[in-house]
Amino acid sequence: MTATATRADRRAQRRNRRALRRWEVANRGTELGLIVLVAIAVVGAYTLASLGKTASLPVNLGPFLAVVLGLLLCGHVALRILAPRADPVLLPVAGLLNGLGYVMIVRLNRHQAGLQAVWTALGMAAFIGTLAVVRRVRDLDRYRYLLGLGGIGLLLLPLVPGIGEQIGGSRVWVHFGPLNFEPGELAKVMLLVFCASYLGEKHVLLAQGDRRWGPIPLPDLRALGPVALAWGVSIMIMVAEHDLGMSMLYFFLFITLLYVATGRRRYVGGGAVMFAGAALIAYRTSAVLHERVTVWLDPWRTSQSTGFQLVQAMFAFAAGGTVGTGLALGSPSRIPAVQTDFIFAAIGEELGLAGTVAVLAAFLIMVTVGLRIALRADHPFDKLLAVGAAAILGLQTFIIVSGVIRLLPLTGITLPFVSYGGSSLLTNYILLAFLLRISDSSARHAAGITP
Amino acid sequence: MNRNIRAFGIIVMLLFVALAAQLANLQVVDAKHLNHDPRNTRQVVADFSKPRGAIQTADGVIVAQSVPSGDLYKYQRQYPKGPLYAFTTGFLSFRYGATGVEAQYGAALAGRDLPSAGGLRGLLSPTIRTGTVTLTLNDYLQQAAAFALGQRVGAVVAIDPRDGSILAMVSQPSYDPNLLASHNGTAESTAFTGLNRDPGAPMLPRAYRESYAPGSTFKTITASAVLDHNPSIATTTYPTLAALPLPQTTNKLHNFGGETCGGQMPTLFVISCDTGFGQIGLDLGAPALSAEAQAFGFNQIPPLDLPGVFRSTFPGPAFFDQQKPLLAFSAIGQDDVSATPLQMALVASAIADHGVIMTPHVMKEIRDSDGNVLTSYTPKAWLVATSPSTADQIRAFMVSVVQEGTGTAARLPGVQVAAKTGTAEVTPTATNAWMIAFAPADNPVIAVAVVLPALTGVGNEVTGGVKAAPIVRGVIAAWLQHLSATAAPHA
């Protein structure tokens, strides 16, 4: 009797395990298929760009295909081993954006393309490394304050004389010998972990606590203190470094996390009021912001000086039209900083509205998949971290694209995965690893497996 | 928490919809408007990165060409003759766009409007075809005209009156278009700024984009107006005067240099008598004179195939209603009359071509890379300025000007030259010295206008007959010599 029951149990367990493995395989199989499609798309774009530029096939087509496929397969294999139940869509979409960005950079500046390739490999290494080291994101809870302080420390680095460097009006770079790095990018991840971890613990308290000062409801300052401090300090540092795009991103990221954690609209309202106030003060006092707003309102008046970049970007988008000029057949080099902040304009010129909307759709897929991972996550910290990672991708894309297409004043920041820039690429791959780690954990949890 | 995550998701979607909407606006709705914005140099950029056809003179001298360059743009535009053809070829600048023939025939030079090789082969390996523009200008004559003008400020325009071909067009000072075709943006903008700040205005095409009081060369039109509208004036004898009393004012119209003169119109024309022609203008009346100026091309932009051609001006009849004295001054080409050297060359060619002004043009033909003629200029009349009989009478007056009048300095052995001098006082101390001419008088092959504006000096040293006539003579002599030299082998 007992023996039969045990045997039946064991059989059921085996059935369950087989079903689970099939599901794992199905998930990773989808990913593998998408990776092959992405590799074909990227190599196809690379070939077209070469045909457009020199009317000949690229000489290194074989090696290029091997590298693209190889890098993506590295990530894929790492996921099979380290997070087999992770979402199958994110890695291929990131690879597509990264690959498209690389093709545009090759077409714009061969030297930078080489560096970007190295950074892509480093990004993939960071991706795998993160998956390998962080087996459960909640483990990061322990290093909450270390990460928070470390993030602020990183933000301060560019202000240190000797290693800090001012490029293009913003002092956000540090260099050690030949190595240039934008520490604000990495600080983004560390501060996100800190906030997600802190708010994940205190969200109940923050959602309930209610003090009033007369008619004005006040947040529980004692509960909010550390996170508000980190927020204020980091934004002040970035304002001091004239990094408008990054400070915008931080601001909206914190508001998003606070709102998701507590569900209190008053944080959003308060944030909006603070943003309006800060923007007004900055507009009055910061020459950089004042200039950006002036150019945004009327780029034509200064089309040969401060408005040149934006006007040229608008010409690029217009030249692209519906389907674009074709890869390497446009002239986006007219736009200053086209490889970094303005790479979206190059895509707009050469791939047209079809291309820009496709890129936006890819980002939207990443954001929605990220948010779905957050919905399914089974711990407040996991949820907040996933929301934060998705929010960074979505908000950063919105901030730079809206600036480039003159929807909002321009505040320079990279387009995730697409722009030239090693620090940004590395950071985004780490965020991607977090998302995949969380999705794997919640799938395991749902399947009743504890790591 | 999940409800909040969904709310955030909706916000992000709305933000992305806003992005897509603005993109559609930029890339589709507003695209045409942006693509045609004059500040948009994208077309120039595209043209820079492709080979571009050459521009050559009628006698085969290359005046603009693209040679491979090692830099980003692949080709470098060169102007081997430097400043000599600057106002005809124009320049193709990365930053400042294109001017001259580079702009006018830009599409043909870049091969944009040429049919491309058809079929799949054409699609896969598009061979870039370009057009070569051959000018009507002749390098031999252009050099001769530039030599005759020398370093003096002024302009020379030579036209074949039979078909409107511009044979030579010199404007001094000039600039080197190579400076503005530099791929180095800083060098380019430094040159551009420097040229624009130069008080000598070296980038001003004086031949067709600047107008000057034409002085007595305008008497050609006044005399035509008499013959066309009121021939009885031509046989009226005008008193010999040093100064003409004017209606409605105590001011008088003085002869140049205080001379006295009078007689009938042919005589007045030959010696260029201002008092006589002033009275002729008053007798003729504003409507007739204004209509004649209009018929000769004033108040219209000559349809020369170059951008930026100026219109020459003569006031409408109503202008003189309250200011009768000004009519006397306008009849001798002063005060409110102003003409470009191109316009005055067209006046000469009207008389030379029996009253018809042929459309002036610099493009002779356009060939593709394989040497096939794509476009060949077909001569057509622009205006009928006057009747053949009037033109023939004026021609006789102009022949006399060279034989016995103010233009003897334009005389050439063995060839009858017809000309009219002009000396317009622009300020009490500065005059524009003019001459318009054509030759040979009985079968004209060249019509010329020369202006030396704002010459300072006194008396007869700064007249058209002294200063401009030798240039005219040099240009005509060079052309006739060139024609007989090139025609000889065939004879």
Describe this structure in words.
The complex is a heterodimer of chains A (451) and B (491). Chain A has 451 residues and is mostly helical. Chain A has one domain. Chain A is 72% helix and 4% strand. Chain A has 14 helices and 5 strands. A 3-stranded antiparallel beta sheet of chain A has the order 1-2-3, with no helix packed on it. A two-stranded antiparallel sheet of chain A has the order 4-5. In chain A, helix 3 runs antiparallel to helix 14 and helix 9 crosses helix 10. The mean pLDDT of chain A is 87. With 491 residues, chain B is α+β, with helices and mostly antiparallel strands. Chain B has a domain of 262 residues: 3-Layer(aba) Sandwich (Beta-lactamase), CATH 3.40.710.10. Chain B has a 6-stranded mixed beta sheet, with no helix packed on it. In chain B, strand 4 and strand 5 form a beta hairpin. The longest helix of chain B has 28 residues. Chain B is elongated and about 110 Å long. At the A-B interface, helix 8, helix 11, helix 12 and helix 13 of A face helix 1, helix 2 and helix 3 of B.
Please specify the SSE layout and strand pairing.
The complex is a heterodimer of chains A (451) and B (491).
Chain A: H1 2-54, H2 61-82, H3 90-108, H4 110-133, H5 144-156, E1 164-167, E2 170-176, E3 179-181, H6 183-208, E4 211-213, E5 216-218, H7 221-240, H8 244-262, H9 265-285, H10 287-297, H11 308-320, H12 343-376, H13 380-404, H14 422-446
Helix pairs in contact in A: 1-2, 1-3, 2-3, 2-4, 3-4, 3-12, 3-14, 4-14, 5-6, 5-7, 6-7, 6-8, 6-13, 6-14, 7-8, 8-9, 8-13, 9-10, 11-12, 12-13, 12-14, 13-14
Chain B: H1 2-29, H2 31-35, H3 42-48, E1 55-56, E2 62-68, E3 75-78, H4 86-89, E4 92-93, E5 97-98, H5 100-104, H6 106-110, H7 119-124, E6 132-135, H8 139-149, E7 154-159, E8 166-172, H9 177-180, H10 185-197, H11 206-209, H12 219-229, E9 238-241, E10 243-245, E11 252-254, E12 261-263, H13 265-271, H14 274-284, H15 286-295, H16 324-331, H17 341-352, E13 356-358, E14 363-367, E15 373-376, E16 381-384, H18 388-404, E17 418-427, E18 430-439, E19 446-456, H19 464-487
Parallel strand pairs in B: 1-6
Antiparallel strand pairs in B: 1-2, 2-3, 4-5, 6-14, 7-8, 7-19, 9-12, 10-11, 13-16, 14-15, 17-18, 18-19
Helix pairs in contact in B: 8-19, 12-14, 12-15, 12-18, 13-18, 14-16
